[in-house]
Amino acid sequence: MWSSRFAFILAVAGSAVGLGNIWKFPYMAGENGGGAFVLFYLLCVVAIGLPIMVSEIMIGRRGRRNPIATMRIVGEEEGSRPSWGLVGVMGIFAGFLILSFYSVIAGWALAYFVFSLGGEFTGGTPETIGALFASLLGDWKMLGLWHTIFMVLTVGIVARGVERGLERFVRIAMPGLLLLMIILLVYAIVAADFASGWRFLLTPDLEALTPQAMLEAMGQAFFTLSVGMGAIMAYGAYLPEGTSILRTSIWVVVTDTAIALLAGLIIFPIVFANGLDPASGPGLIFETLPLAFGSMPGGAFLAPVFFGLLVFAAWTSGIGLLEPAVAWSVESHGRSRRSAAIVIGAIVWALGFLTLLSFNVFADFKFLGGTLFQNIDHLASNILLPLGGLFIAIFAGWVMCKNSSSEELDIGTGPAYQAWRFLARWLAPAAVLVVFLHATGLLGRFGLM
């Protein structure tokens, strides 16, 4: 068990807060016009992300097992089929795949942290910064080294268990992450163009909110909370009785969203102060910002702080991605936690080489229209995760009876419960289905986009 509700909030927020908040959210906001995208994203977090998170934690605590066993056990208790356990299988497999490429990208952050300590960005030009990134991606041995370091760090925490490993780590890592963000935010306010960054991120221009931007905001609101992959369900299994699932979930969502917004309020003032393009896409963190750090006052200090922040965020999420598979191995096969973490971590590590080699050795090898990395990412992020979230919402809203869900949530059957039940039964599944159809290109085939 987690020792307290606060420890659980830190752990789940740590799992949710990751590269999606600090890398993906800012560049998506930049590509989609800023404030209007952010406003719609916030609405989607409340209407889609929160009810699914509540559902996943509730199911996890109800079953008290790994995600596969939990879905099977609770399904049988509710008079349904044990085949619901397949949803747990899908979630664990999705997390397994995501961690394999997530670790490689986290390795980029580790490499950039070391680069920044060595002053690699100082006086950089677009050509030299671009060449540095291209050199990193082109060297599979170096990518493999950073990927290995990240996986060793992740396995080391998970192997120590809930209280001695996960909880002890997040009690240090999450406050540390917040401290780094505050340092960077103070700089953005004092020395960068904070007013322009604030206006861009938080002033809605509704004309910029295209249907495409709305769909991307829906997808980001769903993915940013780490729901649908079993991590939240596994953490929910360790939640003590008597802890309010709804209040705890709200705190997690507020924390995750606040960190995403803080990341934007840090990054965009620096971008605008240096005359750079906020819509520079995925390269915003690894090509645009290093250029800014290399030319601005204090950049030699701020660059290691920023990339250290990125590493911390990736680490907390990596732990959440590994935990469900380890919990399944311990409970289903009787392995020690240490043994399970090492074996599964090694398999994930080996699978990660498919991703890192797709940037160099296998860069020209394409199937189904993409590289190895693109296909793994598409399968996990665009198919398995949305389906996992969809089935979790359906299970909580339709399979679990009203007595079971109201008893587990412990909020009675008043307005709060009715609001959750409506969102879990109707709005969240419909929205996730739209995200799934969009991500798989089926909306276009149906002539809806």
Structure description:
- The chain is 78% helix and 0% strand.
- It is built from 19 helices and no strands.
- The protein is globular, with a radius of gyration of 21 Å.
- With 449 residues, it is mostly helical.
- The chain has a single domain, classed as Amino acid/polyamine transporter I.
Q: Beta-sheet strand percentage?
A: under 5%
Biggest sheet statistics: none
**Global mean pLDDT:** 89
CATH topology: Amino acid/polyamine transporter I
Number of domains: 1
| SSE topology string | HHHHHHHHHHHHHHHHHHH
Question: What is the level-2 CATH architecture name?
Answer: Up-down Bundle
- Secondary-structure-based class equals mainly alpha
Offer a few descriptive terms.
Amino acid/polyamine transporter I, mainly alpha, about 0% strand, single chain, about 450 residues
How do the helices and strands line up, and which of them pair or pack?
Blueprint: H1 5-16, H2 19-31, H3 35-63, H4 67-77, H5 85-117, H6 126-138, H7 140-158, H8 162-190, H9 194-202, H10 211-223, H11 231-236, H12 245-273, H13 283-295, H14 299-333, H15 337-357, H16 372-399, H17 402-409, H18 415-439, H19 442-445
Helix pairs in contact: 1-8, 1-12, 1-14, 2-12, 3-4, 3-9, 3-10, 3-12, 3-16, 3-18, 4-5, 5-7, 5-14, 5-15, 5-16, 6-13, 7-14, 7-15, 8-12, 8-14, 9-12, 10-18, 13-14, 14-15, 15-16, 16-18
